[in-house]
Amino acid sequence: MKKNFSTLVSKNTITSLAIGGFDGMHCAHQELFKHLDENGAILSIESGYATLTPKKYRQEYSKYPIYYYVLKDIKHLAGDEFIKLLKEQYPKLQKIVVGFDFCFGKNRGYCIPQLKEIFEGEVVVVDEFKIDNIPVHSRTIREYISNGELTIANKLLNKEYKIYGTQIKGQGLGSKSFVPTINLKVDDFLLPQAGVYITKTILDEKEYDSITFLGHRVTTDGSYAIETHILNSDIKDDEYEIQIKFFKKIRDNKKFESFEGLKQQILSDINEAKDYFLN
Ligand SMILES: Cc1cc2nc3c(=O)[nH]c(=O)nc-3n(C[C@H](O)[C@H](O)[C@H](O)COP(=O)(O)O)c2cc1C
Ligand SMILES: Nc1ncnc2c1ncn2[C@@H]1O[C@H](COP(=O)(O)OP(=O)(O)OP(=O)(O)O)[C@@H](O)[C@H]1O
């Protein structure tokens, strides 16, 4: 995880700011960042609903320092009060970059015309950015991920959707009856729909081809699990910070009549994932 370095950059040096929520740091957000100058920064307004790139993980996706405001601390401000606050905190601010639908201040009562009117500097407004005619928004990407449509979500993100987790103890059945898996505990991130996914798993900064199951283990103990099996490699059990990049869903979660039936299906899933990475 790339550490947030905004505390190392003085606000006094910032000349341009991109403003918004920025959960996901998706393609449209990146379009905004293209308008920042070398002393640019990102101002992220935290509503508390960021689940694609929770605050702690967001800096990884931009070279610009990210500063945060908590929405509930600033939502009472009138438009001119918000701009005054920015001018006080960023005295060299000359340019504000926002998207076509940006609104701010009390009751979101101030939008682009008011921003242009109040801010004595340049206001760059980016038109609605689309990919394959799909408007790119965090909410849309969340919906695709929740529906297991990772291929489209990744297109809108312009990267593979990635979650962070820590290793936890499983049932101890994997190596004995199926294949060895690393069981994960994941907080903060939106989880894709239950099922089996082609993934890459990052352990100690090394990336491995993998296959990941999410869902209730309906064939065994019924409990919810996130488990990843590393392809082509023997990984010893260890305490890892784990990252999983999702590429594609290959099937739904399923209840099998026998452990042998599930094992055969898992072996076939593994072959499908291996083929995917070969091509
Ligand atoms: C690729 C893969 C696919 C899986 N598919 C299913 C499934 O369709 N249904 C299910 O009940 N469990 C599924 N599982 C979970 C297994 O039940 C689980 O790996 C097994 O219970 C071992 O759990 P443990 O690691 O906690 O010991 C799958 C696991 C993997 C790795
Ligand atoms: N598709 C887009 N095209 C142009 N600008 C956008 C687009 N999506 C967001 N922006 C702009 O990016 C900034 C960050 O906004 P925000 O993260 O709230 O957008 P979002 O992705 O639409 O999120 P949500 O779906 O939660 O509303 C804002 O200035 C917003 O206007």
Task: Summarize the structure in words.
- The protein is α/β, with parallel strands linked by helices and 279 residues long.
- The chain folds into two domains: 6-129, 3-Layer(aba) Sandwich (Rossmann fold), CATH 3.40.50.620; 161-278, Elongation Factor Tu (Ef-tu), domain 3 (Beta Barrel).
- Helix content is 25%, strand content 29%.
- It is built from eight helices and 13 strands.
- The chain has helices at residues 27-33, 71-74, 79-89, 112-118, 138-146, 150-157, 174-177, 259-278; strands at residues 16-20, 40-46, 66-70, 95-99, 122-126, 130-131, 134-135, 161-168, 182-185, 195-203, 206-216, 224-230, 241-251.
- The strands form three sheets. The protein has a six-stranded antiparallel barrel. A five-stranded parallel beta sheet has the order 3-2-1-4-5.
- Strand 1, helix 1 and strand 2 (40-46) form a beta-alpha-beta unit.
- Helix 5 packs antiparallel against helix 6 (150-157).
- The longest helix is centred in the last third of the chain and has 20 residues, at 259-278.
- The radius of gyration is 22 Å and the shape is elongated.
- The chain starts with 15 loop residues before the first strand and ends with a helix.
- The site of flavin mononucleotide (FMN) has 23 residues, from strand 11, strand 12 and helix 8.
Estimate nothing, just give the exact number of structural domains: 2
Report the CATH superfamily of the largest domain: HUPs
Number of strand segments: 13
For the largest beta sheet, what order do the strands appear in spatially?
8-9-12-11-10-13
Radius of gyration: 22 Å
How many angstroms does the end-to-end distance come to? 29 Å
